[in-house]
Amino acid sequence: MRITHHRLPMRVAINALLLSGPFSGVEKAIHGLLRHIGEDGGDEFVALVGNDFDERLLDGARVGIERLPVSNRSRLARIVYEEHFLSRRLKGFDLFHAPGYVAPRRLPCPLVLTIYDLVVLTHPELARRSNVLHYRWRLPRSARAAARVIVPLECVARQVVERLGVERERVRVVPLGVGAALKPPSLDVRAAVRAKHHLARPYILFVGNIEPKKNLPTLLRAFAALKRGGLPHKLVVAGKRGWGCREVFALPAELGIGGDVRFLGYVEESDLAGLYGGAELFAFPSIVEGFGLPPLEAMACGTPVVTSDAEALLETTGEAAEHVPALDADALADAMRRVLSDAALRERLRAAGLARAAQFTWQQAAEMTRAVYREALTCG
Q: Does residue 7 surpass a pLDDT of 80?
């Protein structure tokens, strides 16, 4: 039987309580979706935000904003509100999108749920214990209740089917997007970002939260090996301080490279193109990812990329990056050395990376998400 998707105007509520800034990972995905979800016109999309949300974060987005009586910045208050009170605010909506892994019980309308990864189930040692306990309880229940489950990659779709028991026909793959501002920067932009952050050339770059799954100790050991071989580069690490990161900050001194490693902390979105574009190489040795946006962002800025062979990174970067076993510091050092010393390889990776990154846009992600909404209304 042929299924006809819902064609009447939709009124969709999107849970945006996770948006407290600064954005990375899931927050960046939610923000990117909200900035483009209303571009087709005709439907109504409402972002449900906390009472301290900065509306300037959604300037120009064609979404309504509804403030809820809870802080965006209080994790515990948010969890309690979502679980026990949020469903009461959904009357009058045709659909609810929970873009952050979990949803409340007893919803008055169909649910679309986004799951970016299952790290809490597949690699619990790489997740905060509180997250493991929380999501092991709520994630399976939320997935079972969803009319449709959105995931960013095919490898995550397989995990959702195998680990959560969700039927494959209820799962839809919607890749994330690369921001339009991320493109090869001019020489002036690169120079301005270097001056602002006091960076010396040349440098190797990592961007991401500093947490165990990002595998920074392996990157630091690989970089130390290159320095012993006379490499003139610095290593620049840009990202928020996460959990379990004490070793990362102590290790450079132990390896004798303390003066060659710069920790910048969180870098504003407006500086990222200049930071990426100014690097001679982007290295991203994560043990596990749900998508892996930073390598694509680096590619969009014209920077050669070396990543681990984590399944998600193989799927996102394809043949446009060099891949090595995640925990093999020697292999990572060899790949980095090879890219830095081979101009032809760098140019091939640069061209392939630009083409690869161009395939991932937030406009496409929003269009695909709207199609999932209509499916959920018809079939859910």
A: no
Q: What is residue 380's predicted lDDT score, i.e. its pLDDT?
A: 52
Using only C-alpha atoms, what is the Rg of the chain?
Answer: 21
339 and 298 in one domain? yes
The boundaries of the domain holding residue 21 are: 11-177+361-379
The rounded Cα 273 to chain-centroid distance in angstroms is 16
- With 0-12 CB in 10 A as exposed, 13-18 as middle and 19+ as buried, what is 348? middle
Residue-level length of the chain:
380
What pLDDT score does 38 carry?
Answer: 94
Residues 191 and 304 in one domain: yes
Domain match, 40 and 151 both: yes
Q: Verify that 141 and 237 share a domain, yes or no.
A: no
Q: How far apart are CA 264 and CA 197, in angstroms?
A: 8
199 vs 184: CA distance, rounded Å: 18
Does 86 share its domain with 122? Answer: yes
Strand boundaries in 219-304, DSSP class E: 234-238, 261-265, 281-284
Q: Is 142:98 a contact under the CB 8 Å cutoff?
A: yes
Give 113's strand partners. 98, 149
- Give the separation between CA 162 and CA 331, rounded to whole angstroms: 32
Among all chains, which residue has been given the structure tokens 């496409």?
A: 364
Q: CATH code at 125?
A: 3.40.50.2000
Regarding whether 142 and 19 lie in a shared domain, the answer is yes
What's the N-to-C CA distance of the chain in angstroms?
A: 16
Q: How far apart are CA 99 and CA 94, in angstroms?
A: 16
**What tokens does 3 get?**
């299924």
Work out the average pLDDT over 52-65: 91
Annotate 233-256 with DSSP letters as a single string: -EEEEES-B-SS-HHHHHHHHHTT
- Distance between CA atoms of 119 and 62, rounded to whole angstroms? 33
Contact by Cβ (8 Å): 141, 164: no
At residue 24, the pLDDT reads 77
